[in-house]
């Protein structure tokens, strides 16, 4: 007997070797997808009727600072340097472990509700993030954000903290958690420090998560300091490889794109954050044309201001169209791949497709809605018309985290209340310091 059978749904497999099934069945057993077919004789403890729904792989959000939900709407409409240096960093200086716990719970609640099954996080007090991920049932690739700022002593303690986190958390929660090294960016960490991080990551067999060329200011600073851009500098120290997740990558030359592609670097595109902070437009179409693995991320809630992947997909598609002045650029199907298949590849998890043997990380999207009728083309609706609140059911590792709009893995109202309380106290501490 199977654990879960989802029947009568439109199965959007995202598997290039398996066509979508108009009225199909997904069988889940021991955390894995055991069968994808038109009919089954199999029985299960839980049978979900997905009539009028789309059954698809859940989203992978490849760049977040989950705890920053506490700063949602706190400092908007500012330039990135002003935003970060005068508002966010002073506020983060007051953050406590319990704040990050509350903020991350709020983030995980939002992700479960909006169909995200895994996320790549870079922040502080990462043990708290680990605890929240472990109890929520989600998957995550977690990294302690190391900010060295050309201070050798600080660099040593930062790397030590990063390493302690990697050693303790890599592979935790039955493999749902992986731990990465998180050097913040090439303009906040020295070349020497980045070399040490690269070496340590190889020794520990851990991946690396880093911001790369998010702004023109970073590009200019790097040129002044090293006589070359971030990508060339990182390439000169053999930093790149398929184990690197580079967020943003907005200010790339054609040569940079070749370097990223040739080194199989995973690129997390964050269009909403890039638009909100006016960072620029990443050359996504060119990267994809080269065969680079480009996935999607929301960035933190202070620059988005939510963690919804539906919005992110739509923004990604529209932004490429207007940038290239080509309405055929980044079509719906391709942007869905970025949000699922490519994200799973970046985090090296067997998710992102509805395929036999893959992780049972499945979402059910309710299409029986006014704004989703009529329905001609499923990918088109998912990218251009659907929204986070259309997700009905979220399953991760074969466990139902949200069942028919009811969150099971946590107490929803409690998480909202505690997040709000933590934010209020945090900001009053910040104000008191002014
Ligand atoms: O868009 C961004 N660019 C650069 N840094 C960011 C962005 N969003 C958040 N952080 C910052 O990165 C650190 C994570 O450890 C935090 O300081 C967070 O505020
Ligand atoms: Zn970021």
From TrEMBL:
Listed EC numbers: 3.5.4.41, 3.5.4.31, 3.5.4.4, 3.5.4.28
Uppermost EC category: hydrolase
Cofactor stoichiometry and binding remark: Binds 1 zinc ion per subunit.
Residues annotated for substrate binding in this entry: 92, 184, 214, 299
Cofactor: Zn(2+)
GO terms assigned for molecular function: 5'-deoxyadenosine deaminase activity; 5'-methylthioadenosine deaminase activity; adenosine deaminase activity; metal ion binding; S-adenosylhomocysteine deaminase activity
Subunit structure comment from the entry: Homotetramer.
Protein role: Catalyzes the deamination of three SAM-derived enzymatic products, namely 5'-deoxyadenosine, S-adenosyl-L-homocysteine, and 5'-methylthioadenosine, to produce the inosine analogs. Can also deaminate adenosine. The preferred substrate for this enzyme is 5'-deoxyadenosine, but all these substrates are efficiently deaminated. Likely functions in a S-adenosyl-L-methionine (SAM) recycling pathway from S-adenosyl-L-homocysteine (SAH) produced from SAM-dependent methylation reactions.
Descriptive protein name: 5'-deoxyadenosine deaminase
Lineage, uppermost ranks: Archaea, Methanobacteriati, Methanobacteriota, Stenosarchaea group, Methanomicrobia
Designated gene of the protein: dadD
